[in-house]
Amino acid sequence: MKIYAPTIPVCQLDENNYFVGMTTADLDPLENNGHYLLPRLCIKAEPPELRVGYVAQWCDTEWQYIEDHRYEVFYSKETGEVVVIDEPGKLPETVTDTPRPDSFHHWAEKENKWVMSPEAEAQKQQQKRKAKINTLLSVATEKIAAYQDMIDFADTEEESTEAEKGLLAWRRYRAALLKYQKGLISELPRTPEE
Questions:
Q1: Neighbouring residues of 52: CB distance < 8 A, sequence distance ≥ 6
Q2: Contact at 8 Å (CB) between 11 and 22?
Q3: Pairing of strands 42-43, 7-13
Q4: pTM for this one?
């Protein structure tokens, strides 16, 4: 009488026949002829060779290797947004693994990279300039409010006079910033503290 192993290794597949891993099949206790009870979605076969960037798929009698980018990060060449790859297969032509540096860049197929047009560069610089001016205006407004409080609640004439000087300096600075913002002067004014 032949003795059979109580379990054998089998390949486990998913619903699309992609290799998931190894598991075991138990010897059928009702049959004593080497028949094993295969778990659902399992096959008796040699495990596939592991290849980086590929997934093995069982095709009737053999393993087929398919590109697999499901766990990698890609970006749309059109919008720069993250693209989720759901299925194994060749990578779509519409994605890249290079993140978009910012919204001023666009994908140039010819150069195969993100580029910025001279117009977009000018727009980016303009946006930076506006942001810097707005920050400086906010600082000036806070300083003016603080000096006004010092004047309103000064305990001595000397305190009040000193606060008025600060208030006047910061108001002049804010006015100069507004002129710079409108293009009436070409140089960014220096703060009263400089």
A1: none
A2: yes
A3: antiparallel
A4: 0.64
SS3 string of 9-58? EEEEECCCCEEEEEEEEEECCCCCCCCEECCCCEECCCCCCCCCCEEEEE
User: Residue 147: what are its φ and ψ, rounded to 5°?
Assistant: -65, -35
The amino acid that residue 75 corresponds to is Y
pLDDT tens profile 132-175: 999 999 999 999 999 999 999 989 999 999 999 999 999 999 99
Tens of pLDDT along 53-104? Answer: 999 999 989 999 999 999 899 999 999 999 999 999 999 999 999 999 999 9
- Asked if residue 43 lies in contact with residue 30, where contact means CB atoms within 8 angstroms, the answer is no
- Asked if 104 and 116 count as a contact pair (C-beta separation under 8 A), the reply is yes
